[in-house]
């Protein structure tokens, strides 16, 4: 199973995701802000990052920039979770991949058990 850093400011959603992922056997670290996520990455060896785009203070794109600036972090696969469709960002698949994004999930269409299945697929690919 995987060590997962969940960066999600909506506590209701975070609790749903955490519960589902823990039930699937994963170890979850949760941050509500970009700064908390950097602190948790310093303290833990996350294997996958689940990242909400709309965060307080610094947004998820800024987190992606930060991840790419550290050699230890820039190979961690990132799954984006957002209420904003990927088309609204106007970034190509290649640009997302350069940020380390392996999957972009549109929150209104993803259930917690779907997320667990996606993570299982990522773990199996490693």
Describe the structure.
The chain is α/β, with parallel strands linked by helices and 126 residues long. It has one domain: 3-Layer(aba) Sandwich (Rossmann fold), CATH 3.40.50.2300. The chain contains 6 helices and 5 strands. A 5-stranded parallel β-sheet has the order 2-1-3-4-5, with helices on both faces. α1 crosses α6. The model has no long low-confidence stretch (mean pLDDT 89).
How many domains? The number is 1
- CATH structural fold name: Rossmann fold
The helix/strand series, from N terminus to C terminus, equals EHEHEHEHHEH
What do the pLDDT scores average to?
Answer: 89
- Category by helix and strand content: alpha/beta
The helix count comes to 6
CATH superfamily: Response regulator
Strand content: 15-25%
What about the largest sheet? 5 strands, parallel
> What portion of residues is helical?
40-55%
* Overall shape: globular
Structure in a nutshell:
The chain is an alpha/beta fold.
Task: Note the topology.
Layout: E1 3-7, H1 11-23, E2 27-31, H2 34-43, E3 48-52, H3 60-68, E4 78-82, H4 86-89, H5 93-98, E5 101-106, H6 112-125
Parallel strand pairs: 1-2, 1-3, 3-4, 4-5
């Amino acid at each position: 199973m995987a060590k997962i850093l969940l960066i999600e400011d909506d506590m209701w959603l975070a609790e749903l995701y955490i519960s589902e992922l823990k039930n699937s056997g994963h170890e979850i670290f949760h941050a509500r802000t970009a700064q908390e996520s950097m602190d948790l990455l310093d303290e833990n060896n996350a294997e996958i990052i689940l990242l909400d785009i709309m965060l307080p203070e610094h947004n998820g794109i800024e987190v992606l920039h930060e991840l790419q600036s550290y050699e230890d972090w820039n190979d961690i696969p990132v799954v984006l979770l957002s209420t904003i469709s990927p088309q609204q960002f106007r970034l190509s698949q290649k640009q997302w991949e350069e940020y380390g994004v392996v999957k972009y999930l549109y929150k209104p269409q993803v259930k917690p058990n779907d997320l667990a299945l996606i993570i299982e697929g990522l773990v199996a690919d490693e």
